[in-house]
Design goal:
Distance between the termini: 27 Å
Number of strands: 9
Strand order of the largest sheet: 3-4-5-9-6
CATH class of one domain: Mainly Alpha
Helix content: 55-70%
Largest sheet: 5 strands, mixed
Shape: globular
Strand content: 5-15%
Radius of gyration: 25 Å
CATH architecture of one domain: Orthogonal Bundle
Number of helices: 29
CATH topology of one domain: Neurolysin, domain 3
Structural class: alpha+beta
């Protein structure tokens, strides 16, 4: 996924504060109470203990309260420096601590850390509310806002003032005291419910289902590397001589693609679909019911028709109706194509003598067969050319060709897990840009999916730029035996995608934290999705796609097959995504009462989703919208896809996919992305508004 996200946590913390208590003496053995004495001041992970977080969070809260008290006690008339910039610079220690904690809780957690998260989360929720509802602070911010046109502010200062004022307004600063008290309670409940939802999904994915195979015949059809990986997983769980498959994507998807045992495919897929819907301690249905009702209540309290209206109001789309229009504009052609794909697979089933109708757990398996028949191509032909280290080299190659930057592996930079690798990112002339972590493989303490985040965002202090520390977390296929980590092409594009997010964070250069790299949610995926385009370009493939055994560059015949099959299964992929996006919008625009699964079924029936395709995420494990910051916003991937297809089309039309002039303009877009409204920033790059035509053409929907 992204879980988004380079600066969302930091931005939320800029906006925080909590009732203070008398400060206790600070333990200077706690690394958070002093400057990090590490290369580029990254967190000293080996020195940080779990017991350090809560005292540092409390101290960070106290520090920010003191910083804000200086602002509100100031007898001078409020102005940009003594109010807006002072607020913008507040809470830095809290941000540093919280980013470290929540990043580790997503990528490297355990039961003890989750318990601390349950203690920290309400503190931060209250903290955020107390600043957002601080009357004296809002009074000073509003005073600057009301006089902003008289204060001779530059464009960045003007935008920072306007954004902070809007933030206060959207967080209830203009509500009456009784409604503010109600809002505090809502925010606290919502924060804890979202945390609970994510914990439940993690438990359901990692602990509550494993497919254990002890009959080798049940492995028929699976590639050797998949079998070896399952044997390695079983061995690690002391099940030597057996094969273990988990609900992690690198384990599940190949099984659904290749396993000939249809009954096991059904069992496996249904276990995946039923996460959070098993009537156990991790069941999420009650959590969802409470979440959507509380979100709706909060939106109405803040003057919006529903939660989606509240969320989308500050996005490029502006209204849920515009979101729905875009989704439905794609839905009809995508569904038509998906039905044709279904019919092709049913023909194949019938030809093979199968006496059954295609079901959702059959789709991946027969799609692979159709791809093999139509294009003489299957994933097993490609994977030997996609060794993880080579694909990463391809990412670095593209970034270097576009922007001249280089990535230097560093063993002296602390990492939070032995599997994590650190790189220093430099300009061509050796100037330091930032630090980039890669964490590639699944483990029990890591959430599903892939995301980009940061341990430190770019900022300025005392006129000096503080460089970013960015992290990419994935769940890619592990090495097994003598076979290195070989990626599917979907995993290849995921690595390019998340690296695009990383470049956004690394290149960001803004003078104020509130606007530096902070973009509307439906703009966030542009930097990542545009990067995916280079992954399949022949020139780029020839650079990184090399057989892991022989070193042979990927043959031209395979490149041609990959190009010809680019639109294969796009009906399915677009439909399952759009179905989830429309489900998200229904959850946040329509009233809910009753049964969660009935609500979901009614939503899918209304749009005519065929039974052979499930929405990409069922409600009970839809972490993007119920715990990952994308509520009423899962649509952003397709909104940004319009932008990215249009942007890459500019490179293609120029005749040079590394066109230096366009690359320079796109780097400016990344660096200054928060300096204006999303469409203005995009038009500054493109010279025009985006067209939907390149996206329709790319997906074969036209």
């Amino acid at each position: 996924m992204k879980k988004i996200q380079l600066s969302m946590i930091a931005l939320a913390l800029i906006f925080s504060s909590c009732n203070s208590k008398k400060e206790t003496k600070r333990d200077m053995n706690n690394p958070f109470f002093s400057e990090f004495k590490t290369p580029f001041q990254v967190p000293p992970f080996s020195e940080i203990k779990l017991e350090h977080f809560l005292p540092a969070i409390n101290a960070g809260i106290a520090d920010q309260l003191a910083e804000i008290k200086v602002i509100t006690d100031n007898k001078e008339e409020s102005n940009f420096e003594n109010t807006i910039n002072a607020f913008d610079q507040s809470g830095i220690m809290l941000t540093k601590t919280s980013l470290t904690f929540f990043n580790l809780n997503s990528a490297n957690t355990n039961d003890e850390m989750q318990a601390v998260a349950r203690e920290i989360t309400p503190k931060i929720s209250a903290h955020r509310d107390n600043i957002a509802l601080n009357k004296e602070l809002f009074k000073r911010v509003k005073s600057v806002y009301d006089r902003r046109k008289e204060l001779n502010l530059n464009a960045d200062q003007m935008r920072t003032v306007e954004k902070y004022y809007l933030d206060f307004e959207r967080n209830g600063a203009n509500l009456s005291e009784d409604k503010q008290a109600e809002l505090r309670k809502l925010n606290d409940e919502l924060a804890m419910l979202e945390l609970k939802f994510g914990e439940n999904v993690l438990a359901e994915s990692n602990k509550n289902f494993k497919l254990i195979i002890d009959n080798e015949a049940d492995l028929k059809g699976l590639p050797a590397d998949v079998i070896a990986g399952a044997a390695e997983t079983a061995k690690n769980d002391k099940l030597t001589g057996k094969w273990e498959f988990t609900l992690k994507t690198p384990s599940m998807v190949p099984f659904l693609q290749y396993a000939e045992n249809r009954a096991l495919r059904e069992k496996f897929y249904k276990a995946y679909l039923n996460r959070g819907n098993n009537g156990n301690a991790n069941d999420n249905k009650e959590v969802i019911g409470k979440l959507v009702k509380l979100r709706d209540h909060r939106a109405k309290l803040l003057g919006f028709a529903n939660h989606a209206s509240y969320v989308v109001d500050v996005n490029m789309a502006k209204t849920p109706e515009k979101v729905h229009d875009l989704l439905m504009k794609l839905w009809t052609p995508a569904l038509d194509r998906a039905k044709k794909e279904r019919d092709d697979m049913q023909i194949l089933i019938d030809k093979e003598g199968g006496k059954f109708k295609l079901e959702s757990w059959d789709w991946w398996y027969y799609a692979e067969k159709v791809r093999k028949a139509k294009y003489d191509l299957d994933e097993s032909q490609l994977k030997p050319y996609f060794k993880l280290e080579n694909v990463l080299d391809g990412v670095f190659y593209v970034a270097n060709k576009l922007y001249g930057i280089k990535f230097i592996k560093r063993t002296d930079i602390p990492v939070y897990n032995d599997e994590t690798t650190a790189y220093e990112v430099q300009e061509a002339n050796g100037k330091h840009i930032g630090v980039l972590y890669y964490d590639f493989h699944p483990r029990s303490g890591k959430s599903n999916g892939a995301w980009c985040t940061s341990f430190r965002d770019q900022m300025y202090q005392n006129g000096q730029m503080i460089t970013p520390v960015v992290s990419i977390v994935c769940n890619f296929t592990r090495p097994a035996g003598n076979v290195p980590a070989l990626l599917s092409f979907d995993e290849v594009t995921t690595l390019f995608h998340e690296s695009g997010h990383a470049l956004h964070g690394l290149f960001t250069d803004g003078p104020y934290r509130r606007i530096a790299g902070v973009v509307p949610n439906d703009f966030v995926e542009l930097p990542s999705q545009v990067m995916e385009n280079w992954a399949s370009e022949p020139e780029v493939l020839r650079h990184y796609a090399k057989n892991y055994q022989t070193g042979e560059v990927i043959p031209e015949a395979l490149i041609t097959k990959l190009e010809k099959s680019a639109q294969f299964n796009q009906g399915f992929e677009t439909v399952e995504y759009l179905a989830a996006s429309l489900l998200d919008m229904d959850w946040h625009t329509k009233p809910f009462s009753g049964n969660v699964m009935d609500f979901e079924k009614a939503s899918m029936d209304q749009i005519g989703l065929i039974k052979e395709i499930q929405p990409r995420y069922h409600s009970t494990y839809f972490t993007h919208i119920f715990s990952g910051g994308y509520s009423a916003g899962y649509y952003v991937y397709i909104w940004a896809a319009v932008l990215d297809a249009d942007a890459f089309d500019a490179f293609k039309q120029s005749g040079n996919i590394f066109n230096p002039e366009l690359a320079a303009r796109f780097r400016t877009l990344l660096a200054k992305s928060g300096s204006d409204e999303g469409m203005v920033v995009y038009k500054n790059f493109r010279g025009q508004e985006p067209s939907i035509e390149p996206l329709l053409k790319r997906r074969g929907l036209k």
